[in-house]
## 1
Amino acid sequence: MWRYFFITQLVNLSLFGQDFHQDIKIDCDTNFYLLEAYQDSLPFYEKEFGHNKKISIRDKKLKLAFYVALRHYPELKNVHMKVNLKKISATMMAQPTYSFLFHRKEKRHYQIFVNSTQANNGMYYKDLTFNSQVGWIGHEFAHILDYSQKSNKELLVFISKYVSSKKELKKTECEADRVAIRHGLGKQLLEGTNYFYNNKRITKAYREKKKIYYLSPDQIVTEMAENCK
Ligand SMILES: [Zn+2]
């Protein structure tokens, strides 16, 4: 997806590097989220947190997981986001809409694609527990938070590095995991990652990719311990 985007959209690229770090209040004392406890909460969440959000998937569990994760990211409360099903080679992915070049970063819209198929590609979202879905979406929110702090030019530079450098890919994905942990979603991320590591239905190639580019269960535990003192 990014590769296609890169080829078709990249214009006037210049390289410069800059790291963006935001001071985030660390609150790691979160619960294990159970769907049963949130069954009646969707109208409340849509009213309180649905501003500029459009979830085109008729799946109450996923919608609730989206909003429960969003509560951990107050920085994204007013950010425009769409969630759509799509056949992709990952479980979920987040990116700005293709028209981002024509808008200032404050007006940018983002989309989260959720893998629509149970076959071969990424893990099927319905196979994840509610708690794991919250963590998974929290990882995607970490990407959106990162994008939202970049200017258009910086975003283009980032995309070019992401698609061309495995080192940059790993750095980006591990940092997204760390940001999710710092937003209090370590337990959720850990459950999803453990499930992923032990899920024989996932292709070996995708499992190996995740082992290389994302935090391992042990690393998540270490990060939680370091960030939650
Ligand atoms: Zn990611």
## 2
Amino acid sequence: MTNGKLLTGLPIAVDFWKLPPSNGLYLYFLTHLHTDHTKGLTSTWTETIYTSSLNRDLAISMLKVNPELIKPLEIGVSYKMNRFVSVTPIDANHIKGSVMYLFEGSFGRLLYTGDFRWCESMINDPVLKNLSESKDLNVLYIDNTFEHIGNEFPTREQCTLDVLKIMKNHPYHRIIFGCQTIGKEDVLLQASLERKEKVYVPETILKCYRLLGLPCEEIFTTDQADSLLWFEKLNQISQFDLKKKNSEMPTIAIKLTASGLLYKSTKFKDDELIFTVPYSNHSSASELAKCLDFLQPGLVERIVRTNTQKLGLSVIDKFHSFLATIKAAEMTDDITSDSMEISSFDSPVFKSQDPDYFYSAVSQFQSPMPIAPTGTEDTALSEDMDEELLLELGSPRIPVAAQRSPLLTKTSGELDEVLTEVNSIVISISSDIDQFEEDDNYYIYSDAFFEKLMVLHKNYQPFTDIPTHKLME
Ligand SMILES: [Zn+2]
């Protein structure tokens, strides 16, 4: 999965590493080092890349990119790249090193957020403040990872306190922290201080943490026997594994992700071995709304391709409607008091904190019935989406019965219905394959594609007759 883009009509590629060599025609920018933003960037890369200085160190260490090709840029400083383009990096408040980019030239002003978490202090950032005041941001390329999740995320500070609370409730347990490569290290630091114990991390992660300037010798160890606090890749955490670990000693896992953020998962599930704390490095829907309100862009482009459209209008859809209303007023030259009101921040069409919208978004997530299966759009999820959410997001595209129990007790009429549903999954999988071939030969199997195969296998094994080992290979 990739979450990068070529900017429309411009020779500028951000987190996009799939073009053939352009001999300097394209300008390449890197926002941060999560893998969904670096796919295709390897030691064989031959063109100049611009990024923050920490990203440069990480790209050299993690991806073995030729150091001579990566030019560091300072946050807040405007650089003239050539006659046509200037760029200013801005702190993205996502993970350490991550940056947004403001591109300026005769084409106008474009802001590319990359992955980011909007926060109140951003209204004081000189570059963003200037954009807001001048009201001339032409295009905002925005991280829409959580555009459909309506309820507020707790702050990262609150989430860290929640983690410590769970730890206090399990003083003698081994605790597994579900993390991505980088981005959750602040929680591990606090956990180490709480238990007065080092945190186990794999050698590769420790290498990254050293580059981040963390106090590695005091806080981390690469010997599992040294610690009862373990780093684990988010997607490695499962009930099965936890049960196995509990046969050795009492163990719980804390998944640090907002990707499964339903209303219910903001509460601790004390009856489970796995806790989810919605520590998010992406903006919540209401934070996206605040960002849109503040910047008032003329156009909004999504960076992350999702298949959540069927979950109802998102905050970005609402902003698009708001823009359409303004355009319609301009087309008819209808500069009345009404249209003037619409173009203000307090627009009745678009509000930062629309309780009805947020309530409906939450209700839809809590809805017991999956939404009708339609659409064939490919799925490219950012690194914060774990399998739990893949299942949630995948549900609109998978027929209802496919998510229910196996079919051993079905009548023949019901079996016909089920076979039709199986057929529709197969058609959906086939259309995915078509799309991969058209879109991108590089990826044969997406997560969503594999997910569908697993659903098919799990629920229809008696019919599909596919031996387990064949799917798992
Ligand atoms: Zn990221």
## 3
Amino acid sequence: MKRCCWPSAVLPTYLLVVLLLALAASGEVIPRCGDRQLSQEEVEAQSGIVEASAAKRQALMQSTSKRTVLHAFQQQQRARAVNDYLDTYTLLTLDIPINYYVVHHEDGTGYVEEAMLEAQTAVMNDRFASPIDTGLRFHTNATVYINDTSLAMLCGHRRQFIAARYVILDGRDPAESLNVLVCRSRRFLGVAVFPWEAPEDDALQSINLHPGSLPGGYVADFNEGDTLVHEAGHYFGLFHVFEGTTCSRRRGDFIRDTAAQKYPTSGCPSPEESADTCPHRRGHDNIHNYMDYSTDACIDRFTRWQVVYMRYYTEYFRPRLSNAALVVEASSATCTDLGWQPADGVVGANGRGVCAESRVGSGDQCLTGDWFDAFFHCQSIGARMCTSDELMSMDNKGDIGRCRGLLRNRLVWTTNFCSRARRAVVRLRRRRPPKMECRPPERQAGTILCCADDTDTR
Ligand SMILES: *[C@@H]1O[C@H](CO)[C@@H](O)[C@H](O)[C@H]1NC(C)=O
Ligand SMILES: *[C@@H]1O[C@H](CO)[C@@H](O)[C@H](O)[C@H]1NC(C)=O
């Protein structure tokens, strides 16, 4: 058995088509996950569930146009221009709730104790904390047991399972939690869906995990809990280190600090230099990387740039997850803490004493950057990004510090979303009211202005 990210087994046809086209264009080969044929009996047993979910599926089809998905793919390609946010800012911790759904047979096959799931969450926390701290943490929010042989038999299976997911998740919102379906597939240890493949609140946004891969599980060599770490890597937007089965410089996993690797690793080659499927390229295979197929004992790291990308994709594609999981929800510091004097303060129309400014540190630094710069920067100084409402009601005549000139007639990033791929900016105009616009988040040169919530009553 192998770890498997490839969502072809769970993707609806229309998504799959887009995926195949995109890959065919770049000549990549698709690693196949299992796709067992169902018996007539199983299909009939499931028809009720499929029907019940037809309306939901219909809604999904309408809400995700091919263009949206394709656009997301293009964004992903362009994302190679991602900045080194990890180096520039202190990324705040996100504490992500996990919901486990144990889908087991009535005779007990596939049943696992809660303690094993708790151990799995502990492994997630361990792996995402070091050697490079991703700032991503996890806690078990709910464990749901589903004692249903017919559902268990659909584990990881194509269309029926898509419908079944709505039933299994039972109203829990995938946009605000990581949903892990623990069930036995005969073909793979795990399957995840990439963040750009479906809307963030869609039931597709969940991971399938084989119970034998849990810490202490029965699948030899793959029972230390690293399969979920690997699948979560996909869920946060990472490809395999051998993506595209190519040594090409322009394809592969798009990660700068993983060496070119053509094929998945099996076992744990020793010495490690002996594994080198792209001998004419620098470095040897990434056999210790979580995004390879080596055994659990062999893998122990994400690279720096994998971490940068995971955080980037999470803010980009899962804004609600970041908000729900952000440990510091508003600004941890008040205006006074940040040294933003009342003179620099901007009192929001709501009178909550919001203060905003664009000056940083001791110097007269006035920052511009892309949306992610604004997001990470505001977080790292203990403030937060301003909402469009706050900026729209900002007293532009007031003293907003030494960056006042910079702010005039400039676009300021806000927390608001226009659509999946665009973020709202507010243009602060001279002698005219501010105006809201939309632009792609990776565009540079929006002005960075942060807000803080002053608890002082004035
Ligand atoms: C699952 O259901 C079957 C029959 O419906 C029952 O005999 C069995 O005890 C249940 N198992 C668990 C773990 O609840
Ligand atoms: C956490 O679990 C509770 C109880 O099952 C559920 O109602 C809630 O939706 C879950 N929270 C998230 C964020 O999934």
